[in-house]
Design goal:
The complex is a heterodimer of chains A (about 475) and B (about 260).
Chain A lengths: L14 H9 L2 H23 L4 H17 L1 H14 L3 E5 L2 H15 L3 E4 L3 H6 L1 H7 L3 E4 L2 H8 L17 H11 L11 H18 L2 E4 L3 E3 L4 E6 L3 H7 L3 E7 L3 E2 L2 H15 L7 E6 L9 E7 L3 H5 L15 H5 L1 H6 L10 H12 L4 H5 L9 H5 L6 H15 L4 H14 L2 H13 L1 H4 L4 E2 L7 H4 L4 E2 L6 H8 L9
Chain B lengths: L14 H9 L5 E3 L3 H6 L1 H13 L15 H6 L2 H15 L4 E4 L2 H14 L4 H4 L2 E3 H8 L12 E4 L3 H6 L5 H7 L5 E3 L14 H4 L1 H18 L3 E4 L2 H13 L5 E4 H6 L7
Parallel strand pairs in B: 1-2, 2-3, 4-5, 4-6, 6-7
Keywords (chain A): 4Fe-4S, Electron transport, Iron, Iron-sulfur, Metal-binding, Repeat, Transport
Organism (chain A): Actinomadura yumaensis
Protein name (chain A): Lactate utilization protein B
């Protein structure tokens, strides 16, 4: 990918290496296990309330597929409507272009500070870092994003709850250390932590002249942008400042308000397990005397049209960033979000990051393998993204793309050669059976050689039986000549 | 009865047709034992043969069979999987129904064989996982088994979320004489095997296996049952390393067990 694409976190190790460290972090596993189990159960309850969930899910999928098949049409329509309503639309090929546009727009206001509504697109482009380089301070106003931003060198580890890896005593420590106006004697009581951040943020809302937001949905028909949130910080950012700059991935466009109705049901139940989220803000261009006087919409491609060209992989673009797949994923629950090396962790990240960024880096080439293919993610996805299908598809691309894992390649070649012929398989089985007393004691093997150590470090393996099924069948005519059968 | 196919928009061949054919005389049933069972767990294959014979159905074993290609396919070695898919279709083409004691391999065959080799779709549509064959095709849940032990059942991911076998294995187990079937907490969570995932992400895989093993031990069951020996190999290997005396036993072996011939 070009230098302008979503940056890989510097020095990011491959997923298995990063995950190994996370698995050893007992506190992280406890924080994550507790949090994901809670939200998983709540989501199941919220979804079970609706008897037409399957139909809603199918509608969501169809609407997104229709948009993706007609993306150019809907984006041009959106541009026209936003412009008619007094907004300005900018097109950004990649992360670098998007960051440059936003930086230029903020500079033009003369301001050195912006407030931000939680936005995955700007996490993806690394906007905060780009603004900092230009001498502009960006303040995250979502509570979890704020915790991450104040945490020294911390990174988001969940799409909906970026600070899910933190428990409340860690959050208290972060506030005490990095929040200048944190009250004396702050405890880890949730109400106290919320009150401290509310006071801290209120000052920012009231003084900020520029806000940067993401976008959940953009209604092409009317040029209306929609943001769903829970804390009210979004409403503040979208209404108080004089200038509003919204950055959205091009796949966020939907045709009409009728289509929005489907997603307003799918998204809250899937993400926060609520029937309806507390705040849904929508705005269309600018309205004199009400809200921002200046509105800019940045349409971000950043690998999305490349992804769209892949017939199997393109379904990842249906994603509405709900996090349901993270919350049910047994791999995510143990590896944590940071191991995925991208703002998009979990199953959706494992199929999105390697497509947006390409599979050049170690972490991106390892992400399609960061799954046991258990299928839980597909079951809960509100837009029916068949994540296991895409993972397997990307694995094939990773294998075909280059000379990684020569040992695995050789082993797969040898196994394929043996399995292509029943005679060769039978020979291999006879060799295995002959070695059974050498390799295993009491029917089990405690140590395996070479790469198979990865198995036997934690798990016994069965010793080969005295004869294979096919040898038994041949010897006894399928058991017919065997007395005890 | 057309059973909806969950993952691909395909439809599974009508089980009713096969049931009719099996009820007639000239139906040919084959066992696809799978490469893992063939090589490491022959007892499971023998149990399927014994069970189906007890129910009045002879079983053929086409010796040309080897492997469904799942390991290669799921690891990204698609080109290596294709000859295995073709070999599978050729080996089983003469049979009216193919029964396999692996939900995972049955899912690979039904879901992916037709997409990899369109000519393989006919054979693929006649493949049944054991509990599907017993409940849907033969129409039995009481197979005359006896297994007087405390058992907990782990529904493997591919039986649950790919094949959607639902409670078929449990319906079969509940009819077993003398069985003390206890519920497994967190049953629907993956054990962490995942084929080559167990080797490529050993830390996460082992952590998942350890959690699953702990849940199994908490039930107090002496036997862990599942419809796939690969998952049982993973949980069983974890339990064995921890010194637990829980015995992993494939569903087929419990269903084949009788008072006269215990498992």
């Amino acid at each position: 990918m070009s230098d302008g694409a979503m940056p890989t976190y510097v020095g990011m190790p491959s997923f298995p290496d990063a995950a190994r460290e996370a698995v050893g972090d007992r506190r992280l596993r406890a924080n994550l296990g507790r949090a994901t189990a809670t939200i998983r159960a709540k989501r199941a309850g919220a979804v079970a309330e609706l008897d037409d969930w399957a139909a809603l899910r199918e509608s969501g999928k169809q609407i997104k597929d229709h948009v993706l098949a007609n993306l150019g049409h809907y984006l041009r329509l959106l541009e026209r409507r936003v412009t008619e309503a007094g907004g300005t639309v900018h097109w950004a090929r990649d992360a670098a272009e998007a960051n440059a546009v936003v930086t230029r727009l903020v500079r033009a206001t003369g301001e050195r500070e912006v407030v931000k509504v939680k936005s995955m697109a700007t996490q993806e482009t690394g906007l905060n870092e780009a603004l900092a380089d230009a001498g502009i301070a960006a303040y995250e106003t979502d509570l979890a994003e704020l915790i991450v931003q104040l945490g020294d060198g911390d990174r988001p580890s969940h799409i909906l709850v970026p600070a899910i890896h933190r428990n409340r005593s860690e959050i208290r420590d972060v506030f005490r250390r990095a929040m200048p106006d944190a009250p004396e004697g702050l405890t880890d009581a949730p109400a106290e932590l919320a009150e401290a951040s509310r006071r801290h943020l209120r000052a920012k809302f009231l003084s900020a002249k520029v806000a940067v937001s993401g976008v959940n949905f953009a209604v092409a028909d009317t040029g209306t942008l929609v943001v769903l949130e829970s804390e009210g910080n979004g409403r503040m950012c979208l209404t108080l400042p004089e200038t509003l700059i919204s950055v959205m991935g091009v796949e966020k466009v939907i045709p009409t308000w009728r289509d929005l109705e489907v997603f307003l049901q799918l998204l809250p139940r899937s993400s926060t397990a609520e029937r309806m989220n507390p705040y849904t803000s929508s705005w269309t261009g600018v309205t004199p005397g009400d809200g921002p006087r200046d509105f800019h919409l940045v349409l971000l491609d950043n690998g999305r049209t490349d992804t769209l060209a892949d017939e199997v992989g393109r379904q990842a673009l249906r994603c509405i960033r709900c996090s349901a797949c993270l919350n049910v994923c047994p791999v995510y629950a143990r590896a944590g979000g940071h191991a995925y090396g991208s703002p998009y962790p979990g199953p959706i990240g494992a199929i999105l990051s390697p497509q947006i960024r390409g599979i050049g880096s170690d972490v991106d080439a390892s992400l399609p393998y960061a799954s046991s293919l258990c299928g839980a993610c597909f079951d809960v996805c509100p837009v029916a993204i068949d994540i296991p299908e895409v993972l397997v598809h990307l694995r094939a691309r990773a294998v075909e793309s280059g000379p990684r894992h020569p040992l695995e390649r050789a082993a797969m070649g040898a196994a394929g050669w043996a399995l292509r012929s029943p005679a060769r398989l039978a020979l291999a089985q006879r060799v295995a059976s002959a070695s059974r007393n050498v390799v295993g004691r009491g029917g089990r093997i405690r140590r395996l050689p070479g790469p198979l150590k990865a198995w036997s470090a934690t798990r016994d393996a069965p010793a080969p039986p005295p004869e294979s099924f096919r040898a038994w069948w041949a010897r006894t005519d399928g058991g017919r000549t065997e007395e005890d059968s | 009865m057309a059973i909806p196919w969950p993952w691909g928009g395909l439809r599974w061949r009508s089980a009713e047709n096969v049931r009719r054919a099996v009820a007639g005389l000239r139906v040919r049933v084959a066992i696809f034992v799978t490469c893992v069972n063939d090589t490491l767990y022959p007892g499971t294959g023998k149990a399927v043969v014994r069970l189906l014979r007890r129910l009045g159905h002879d079983v053929g074993f086409p010796a040309a069979q080897t492997c469904c290609g799942q390991m290669h396919f799921n690891t990204g070695y698609r080109a290596q999987a294709v000859p295995l898919v073709k070999g599978f279709a050729d080996a089983f083409a003469p049979y009216d129904a193919v029964v396999t004691p692996s939900a995972s391999c049955a899912a690979m065959v039904r879901e992916w064989h037709p997409r990899l080799v369109p000519a393989a779709s006919g054979t693929a549509s006649r493949v049944y996982e054991l509990s599907e064959f017993l409940v849907d095709v033969l129409g039995v849940t009481d197979v005359g088994a006896s297994y007087p032990h405390r058992v907990t059942y782990h529904p493997t991911c591919h039986s649950l979320r790919l094949l959607r076998v639902g409670d078929r294995p449990l319906r079969l187990l509940r009819e077993v004489r003398g069985i003390d079937l206890v519920e497994l907490p967190g049953a629907d969570e993956c054990c962490g095997f995942g084929g080559t995932f167990a080797l490529k992400n050993p830390a996460v895989s082992s952590a998942m296996g350890a959690d699953k093993a702990a849940q199994v031990r908490a039930t107090g069951a002496g036997t862990l049952c599942a419809a796939d020996n690969s998952c049982l190999m993973h949980i069983g290997g974890t339990l064995s390393r921890a010194g637990a005396s829980v015995r992993p036993v494939h569903l087929a072996e419990i269903l084949a067990a009788t008072e006269g011939a215990p498992a």
